[in-house]
Amino acid sequence: MAYNELTEEVWWEGRTPAPPADVTGWRDWTGELIAERPADRKDAPWAHPNSRFTTTLANVTTLAPDAGDAAGVPVDLVITRDREPLTPRGRR
Questions:
Q1: Domain boundaries, the chain
Q2: Residue 63: left if φ>0, alpha if ψ -120 to 50, beta else—which one?
Q3: 12 within 8 A of 50, measured Cβ to Cβ
Q4: Second label for 52, Cα 20 to 30 Å away, from 10, 12, 64, 89?
């Protein structure tokens, strides 16, 4: 994502139809100031192609009440799954 050091805003392609018009303070995902980009990179993406979104923890409705506890949050269960297909082996 792109980050504005002055306003502490974030932006990525798809968040709005066009990037912010005022490029003051904006850095792209590589840390380069948008305002100082060379002419051949003026239209390069601001955000990494794999960017999604960002939010503060205050917006996470399922956050554990003790998430800020210095002792940590108890974990009751961990479920993992590898990237193997759900079909039986040998049927690929």
A1: 1-60
A2: beta
A3: no
A4: 64
Structural element, H or E, at residue 26: strand 26-27
- In angstroms, how far is the first alpha carbon of the chain from the final one? 38
In the three-class reduction of DSSP (H, G, I as helix; E, B as strand; rest coil), residue 54 is classed as coil
Amino acid letter, 74:
P
pTM for the model stands at 0.55
Q: How far is CA 25 from CA 9, 21, 86, in A?
A: 10, 12, 47
Using one digit for the tens of pLDDT, what is the confidence trace for 35-60?
Answer: 999 999 999 999 988 776 667 787 88
CA 8 to the chain's CA centroid: 14
4: tokens are: 């504005």
Please provide the size of the chain in residues: 92
